[in-house]
Specification:
By secondary structure, this protein is of the alpha+beta class. It has helices at 27-43, 75-93, 151-158, 223-237; strands spanning 20-21, 24-25, 104-107, 129-132, 181-185, 190-194, 197-201, 207-211. The protein starts with 19 loop residues before the first strand and ends with a helix.
């Protein structure tokens, strides 16, 4: 619907398939296909944008033998393999003529398990996001609470691009660290999180506010205002 060309293992050349499980091809096969398609676009003098979904760090946690010194079937081993595959991918990409003009973004779509202290476990939703492009921006660590919807605006702003869009996110670098926010959800519950509170909206129209961090010196929080902000953000998106 967004103009992407979808590619999966059915489109991989037979010789490029080295290992697969129920999820599909292993991360190394996926990255090899990515490099092949990038080379083809570069040779045709066409800019390229790829969106890759890696799966080797999912159950059943199996991966090619001989790549890492770890046992099959373990989540820890699968994560180790995923890390190895990323490193190998970046080493190979660094040798390409298009490398200097390319930005790599690595971001998780969800954590490994969902469990926590609240009905919607805010403390279990943290994922990593790394943007790497040495020719475009300098290293910087950002600890402000933000969300996956902020990835694209942050990336475009980091490159100095001006643009018009209907993004709900913003440049995360412009968010004050004390006023971060994120949107999280399960299959039924919708959440809006700030640094110290979490609003949980239920399918029955209920709204609950949980205190995530102690705020002994802060004035009493206006829970209703936070609930209204949460409802407004989801209804506007809808």
């Amino acid at each position: 619907g967004n103009g992407y060309t979808v590619a999966d293992k059915l489109g991989f050349a037979p010789e490029s398939k080295t290992f697969s499980n129920a999820w599909g091809q292993c991360d190394e096969d996926l990255y090899s296909e990515s490099l092949r398609r990038a080379d083809k676009s570069f040779q045709a003098n066409k800019p390229f944008h790829q969106f890759l979904l890696t799966t080797s760090n999912h159950r059943p946690f199996t991966f090619p033998e001989g790549t890492i010194d770890a046992k099959q079937g373990s989540r820890k081993s699968a994560v180790q393999y995923a890390d190895y595959a990323i490193g190998r991918f970046m080493e190979q990409a660094r040798e390409k003529p298009w490398f200097d003009n390319t930005i790599f973004v690595f971001v998780g779509d969800h954590p490994s398990s969902i469990a926590g202290k609240t009905e919607l476990p805010a403390d279990a939703y943290g994922v990593a996001c790394v943007m790497y492009g040495p020719k475009f921006f300098q290293p910087k660590e950002l600890n402000t609470l933000c969300s996956q919807i902020d990835v694209a605006p942050t990336l475009l702003a980091s490159m100095g691009w001006g643009y018009r869009s209907q993004f709900f996110g913003t440049d995360a670098r412009e968010l004050p660290e004390a006023n971060g926010r994120a949107w999280i959800s399960t299959y039924q519950l919708l959440g809006f999180q700030t640094n110290d509170r979490l609003v949980v909206l239920g399918p029955d129209g209920s709204a609950k506010v949980a205190q995530l961090a102690p705020a002994p010196d802060a004035p009493p929080a206006d829970d209703q205002a936070l609930i209204s902000r949460a409802v407004a953000s989801y209804q506007c998106a809808y």
